[in-house]
Amino acid sequence: MITGRDNLQLLNQHVYQAQAEQEQAGRRLEELHQQLNALRLKTGESYRELARLRLDDLKASQVISRLDETDQVVLTLLEKLMQARINLEEQINASLARQRELEGQRKELERQRDEAGEARQRQLDMTRSRLQETEAYRQQQQRAQEAAAVAQHADEKASGAEKDRGEKGKPYEADPLFMYLWNRRFLTPDYRGGWLSRPLDAWVARLINFQSNRANYYMLQELPRRLREHATKVQQTSQSEARALQTLERDRQVQPRLEQEVKFLEEKMARAKVRLERPGTSLRTDA
To answer: Model's pTM, two decimal places?
Structure first.
């Protein structure tokens, strides 16, 4: 997942690259403008000289006046271009400064969060160490461990039975006569057969030894279900014992404010991340 720091680094790279390209283009543009200005001045001088040679004094003065006005317009446009470039550089620098300030705030919050987390962990370790010296805690810990072992063993047995059901049930399910009688629930109180179908079904059952095979297939289907129910119950018991152990640890904590401090700092870090990902956000620090 892309973090706030990754987004900041990517943004800085784009800004630095854009700034370098802008500076290079600005220098090139300035050189071209200087060349254009020199060319225009040279052209103006040529026109002035031509006007002096070929026109009378009045007409020559009019042409020179127009050329001077054109040069003034060009110089005005160049000044506006330079001012726009300066404004753009100021905006880029302000954006970079804002990003650096936000990154500094985020690092400081991260440091405070880590310190609070370490203090909380030290407190938990001290609490657990004191609890382990009590008989009640040791007994509850043993019950939780035993319940977890039983739950794991029950889950393994249920999973094995479910696997056997899929593999060992294939020969039965591949026999159309067996599945025909099974689906009709032959030899069960739910079986409904007419006066003609009953003797025929009984004949088919004797032919394929349905009674014995039905018992095996029934157990193959029923055993995984019962084992899974048992595994679910012992898993619930294991979770209950684990919660009881956690309750003992939580009740003995003497500094719950550490939990609140860590949570508060994590919330501030989340808000700082939002500000980093949205450069236009205000720099005001949350209380």
So the answer is: 0.42
